[in-house]
Design brief:
alpha+beta
């Protein structure tokens, strides 16, 4: 489902537009991280575990360029995905 959603996002984005995704990073403190992992397991979120902290790599499959901006507290980051330029238009780019 996630793949279908990202393919649709790329399809509907217009040129020069960007997709923004917020990613909450796992806690740094050992006890808080353990509680965070327990919470995820209790909710049976295997898919959350599979891509938690690695969204940038996943977005690179769908977008030409991915930029990351960290929050001040370094707990959340915004990932910006820029729509790929069609192959025919790449030749006309400066």
């Amino acid at each position: 489902m996630r793949r279908n959603v990202l393919q649709e996002v790329v399809r509907v984005l217009k040129r020069e537009e960007r997709f923004v995704m917020m990613e909450h990073l796992p806690p740094r403190r050992t006890l808080v991280r353990l509680l965070h992992l327990i919470r995820i397991r209790v909710h049976d979120s295997k898919t959350v575990m599979s891509f938690s902290g690695s969204e940038e790599r996943g977005l690179r499959r769908y977008f030409d360029r991915v930029e990351t901006v960290m929050s001040r507290g370094q707990k959340t980051r915004a990932l910006f995905g820029f729509k790929p330029v069609p192959a025919a238009n790449q030749e006309n780019q400066p």
